[in-house]
Structure formats: structure tokens, C-alpha cells
Amino acid sequence: MIKTYDSVKLYPGGVYLIDGKDIVKGNEKEKLSSFVENISSIEEAKKGTIAYSILKSHNISNDMNKLKIKFDAMASHDITYVGIIQTAKASGLKKFPIPYVLTNCHNTLCAVGGTINEDDHMFGLSAAKKYGGIYVPPHMAVIHQYMREMMAGCGKMILGSDSHTRYGALGTMAIGEGGGELVKQLLGDTYDIDYPKVVAIYLTGKPKNGVGPQDIALAIIGKVFKCGYVKNKVMEFVGPGISNLSTDYRNSIDVMTTETTCLTSIWRTDEDTKSYLSAHNRQKDYKELNPAKITYYDGMVYVDLSKIKPMIALPFHPSNVYEIETLNENLEEILKYTEEEGSKIIDNPNIEFKLRDKIVDGKLKVEQGIIAGCAGGTYSNIMDAASIIKGHSCGNDEFSLSVYPSSQPVMMELVKNGAALDFMSSGATIRSAFCGPCFGAGDTPANNMLSIRHTTRNFPNREGSKPGSGQIASVALMDARSIAATAVNKGILTPATDLDVEYKTQEINFDPIAYKNRVYNGYKILKNNELKYGPNIKDWPKMSSLTENILMKVTSLIEDPVTTTDELIPSGETSSYRSNPLGLAEFTLSRRDPKYVGKAKLVDKLEKVRIENINPTTIDDNLIKVFKKIRTIKGNENINPLETEIGSVIYAVKPGDGSAREQAASCQRVLGGIANIAREYATKRYRSNLINWGMIPFLLDGDLEFKVDDYIYVPNIKALLEKDMTKIPAYIIGEKIKEFYLRIDNMTEDEIKIIKAGSLINFNKNKIR
Fold this sequence. Notes:
Number of domains: 3
Distance between the termini: 66 Å
Shape: globular
Strand content: 15-25%
Helix content: 25-40%
Number of helices: 27
CATH class of the largest domain: Alpha Beta
């Protein structure tokens, strides 16, 4: 039996936190009297969280159970902002009502597809000028580092169209969502959500030398992801251990909270937070945030920082976590298990997924190391890694090391203090600020190689390989310090705690001169210019409004435990086409179900004929039989094909883990998708993306009885959206008609209207009319 780590423990129920340090289980309320005289009710004590105060100050409804949030600022990168602005423009956008930062850190490299990436950048700059935005050019900063350095502040809320929008360590509740939610803010609407549960992340102790923020984050992710302990909840970091971590260190833990599937995060703030903001010339953005004297949390994750050891998340998920020490002691067994589980995910008989071939003389040898992005490229991570690498060589064999500082100001400081020289002297390469290694657009390793990365995700293809073309490489997530230790040992997996290193991390001397000289800051400045369109930037195609009855054809059926957004729409080079809805849609499910696009297009052809007022049965003989059977269902004798929306539907057990990018849903929609059917949705943001693109988020509790190419008929769906959605009759139209039931979790009034309209674009156009 391979032992698991005991540095992180989950409380089975709610807890009280007294004076920010003493813990009383929720079912032991009598113990509170030894701490306080006046014992609050649970409902009152819930108001003591930091989250409650921030949400209350941003909620414009009169009901804290039904929140309507207005954000202080927003951020998007160049994979998402074109679609957001195009959608908002089609819906009547006149100006950006709040600071909106457009960064260019994903489609940074202008190689794939010719000019299309730089065309998107010029579109972004023209939009910032026209509507009053902030434009950060390529190579200047990754999206989240710029927001940390220039925008986040205590008590604020920020919305971003990237899943890793997390600035909790700076006292900001930040949420990553699909583009539709940003469009709503641009048009003056609100972010509507039920009041979320709040879970305390209680930190105590102090990390050992060599243990970094990624180690702590992975330890937490490994405990909470699979059991869904913090799913769609707020993670509120409290406890005395916080004061043993620098704010820059906290930032790197915080950004990884996305991989727990939480809604957002918030941390208590202290003098170190104040020092960080002061160092970034934003003293006014500091205020002390602490839970109340008596605070009730819906759960608690107890983290003993002193017990955490260097961790590794093996392919193909950040939750596949082991202590490096444990892995090294059980290489054969753990890697064999990882190969078996990984092969199920890859599901390609032409690919042999191998890890055990990397065992050399009883040790694991990796071929590449990357320190990058919003998680790894922070100043303190790179400085500690530099302390390890200084005076050593990475070697001149297969192993290579690349370092991507997260912003130009960080790069400037590394140059000034000599850390950049230490890396370059070792044989490592220093790159500009770029998110590429996080999603498969930079430093792609060779086939069958293993890369260790201080980045955010290690899903299949996140390193840039193409499994559909027979290529496979893989990523293991690690902390920058252990990556540097491994580099010192020429690729032999080594925890940083094995080395005796004197760390000399110093507070950054932040110099914003590069931003002042290069970033376009046009907030509240509107220029009467035209948007610049490249030839790849296309408008959204028309989408049908919902009819009373719908007919869905099953075009893909995925029975994996979890389906990531990377499987729904691949990352990497395909991102270059994200300003072209139909062009990008060609890649939908391409690495998971290559037949999907063709099947979906055939169904979409029927719907396109219908909306031209041509009976779709005239072009598909099988459809005649389908409608003939539907007419045998009681109450549906007069069903009219011209009045019945026809669309494709995919089934997946738990879709939507990972990125916030709306294209995971919109690509299905532009191909004629009408719904998803799932056991559950992995994230709130993916379900919101479905809704904003007019797709119904069905849930299935009963047996899976339909298969690919089956038709599913759902009568009276439009009326049922206004009534009881807990038991929706549906019919499989096969040789025989089989009745079964679907359901839909609660939706807001606007979400129901969006579904009925057929998309957020249609909904907004209707409002304008």
C-alpha cells in the first residue's frame, strides 16, 4: 500500500473559527462557550466571513441569497476578447463601463495561421481606443500578473475570461467565467448567482526550505478535487500560517485554486499584503481583511504547512498527486498505474503511453523543465530557483530548462539583480512573458518525452503534442524549486529539499516604466475610430430560437469520468482560429471524437433547411420515419417538423473541467448543438457557457439507454422551463419508442430567457428591439 500524505485534512462538516485561530466543529456548539459569551446563530456567524462582506458590497439585489454582482474591473486575453467584444458590439455596446484589460499573452506568437494572431491584437488595440479600454501588448505580461501588479486590491471583485482569474491573496475576489458573463457586465447587466458556500482553508505552520507554493497547492488539490469538497464554493484562506508566507508566494498558491473547481478565493490580508501593494505603488488599495470574531464556515481544509513535502502531479490531471519522495520510492508501481489510467484517457490504440521507460538505474529521468506563467513565473519562484541553479549546469543532453518571467517588470528585476544571468549561464533559456507552455503553444517536447512544469495544468495535449496524429508527450506539475533541483541533477527527478541551499529571495523593486511606455491605458477615453478587422475575424452565425418541442440527435457519447474543456475544444495551435467561429468549430472534439463534427454538420443542415421554411423531412428520408413515430406519442399527433427545432446533443458524464473559455460550448452551438446531457457539470462556468450559447444543460439521473445516432424528442420544453424542470419527459425514437426523464437544475429568469432566445446574442438583440 502506497502511503498518502497527511499534511492536508478535510473536516466532514461545518466549523466555527474563533478569533481567526481556534476551531470548533459545527456539531460541538457547546464548546463555543469556553471562547465567547454570546454565541451567534449559524446564519449570523456565516456573515463573519471575508467573502460575505465583499459579496454584500458588490451585490445590487436586496437578497443575499440571490446575488446580482457588479464587478470593479475585468480582464481578457487574446483567445477570448475578440469574441466578447464582437458579441457585445452586436448587442449594442457603446463603451466599457468599468476598467477592462485586454492582454495578449496566449496567441502571442505570430506564426501559426500567418497574420491572424497579430490581426487579433490590432483588433484589441482598436477596441481599447474605441470603447475606452486598457491594452497590454504581446510579451509584456501574462494576464494574471498584470492584474496583480496593476489592478487587484483589497475588497475588490474582478471578472476574467480565463479560468485562473484568481487574486485572492491580494484581497480580491476574482472569478473566471466564459465570455458571455463579461458581455453582460459590458452591457450593464449583472452576474447572477445563488449565495455560495464558503470553505475555510486553514493554514498553520511554516514550509520547509525548498517547499514552494506549487507543493502546497498540489497537496490541497489532491485532497479536494475528486471528492468535490470545494466545488463551486469560495475558498477562504485563514489561519496563522498565512503570515509565514510572502504575498508573492501566496499568489502562486492562490492561482492554482482553479484546479479544485472552486468558484473563487479570498485570503485574509496583513502587513505583508500591504508591503506588496506599496511596492507596486498602490498603497491606497490595501485594507485589512479578517474573518469576524465568531465565523461559521461550511467546511474546512486544514493544512499543516510544516508537513508538506515537495509534490508532483503526474499525467493527466493536477489532482493525480504524490509526494516526490513517495514516487521515487515506488517508481515502478506508481508509473505502471499512471500508464494504465492515462491510456484510458488517450483512448488511441495507435499510441503507447509510456513512463516506465524513463526509469534509469532506479531513478526517474525527465527530459524537460519549464517554469512559466501566472503560477510559476512569479518573482519569488524564479529567484528561489535561481538560488538553486547558480553555478550549476543543466547539461548538454536531452534535458532542457526554460524560464518565462510573468511580466516585463519581473524580467527587468531579474536582469538587474543577476538572476537572469545565473539561469543563462547554466544553459537554461529565458523567454518573454507568455502563457504558451500552460496550454500547448510553446516548448513542445519531443514525442514520448516527459516535461516537468511549474504551470497550471497537465491535461493531454497541454504540452503541445497531437495525439490524433500519433504523437504523445506528457506533463508532470511541480514547483519551480524542485524543477531547478532536477535541472542541477541533469534531469534526475529531485525534490528541492534534498539540496542544502541558502535562499536569498528579496522583495521586488517593482519598476512600472515598461508599462508606462508601452501599455495603452484609455479607460474613459473614447476615440471615434473603427475596429480593425483581419480576414480571419468573423461574425457569429445566426442561431435558432427555441421551439416548443425539440428533436435532438446524439452525435457523441463520452463515458469518461471527467471530460475537460481541452477535449471539447483543443488548446494549443487551434487557439489561433478563435476569432473565426466556424473555422474553430472544425476542431470540436477532434481529439476525443473525430467523427463528431461531420455528424453535427449533417444535423445542422436539417435545421438550416427548417429555418428557411423548408420541411427538413424532404431532404432526409429517415426523418420522415422519426416524425411518424413521434406522432404516435399521446398529445403529439399534430407535431409539425417546420415548428420543431432540430439540433445535435452530446452526452458526457461530467463535462467542463478546466478552462473558462466559452468556445467549449460555442463551437457546439455554431455546429447546431442544442443541448448537453450530463450526470453533472464539472464547473459552474461551463454550465453558464452552455446557457449563454442557448444550449440546454440537461442532467440524467437514470440509466443511459440512448446511443450515438439515436434521436431524442423532448415535447413542451419551452413551457417546462417556466414550470417544473425536475422531471422532464423525453423519448428515444428508435425501433421502439422509449420514454425516460431528464432534468435541469435551477436557472435564473434571464438564463431561461437566453435559452428561449437561442443565445445571449439573440437575447440582447431582442432587448434592443
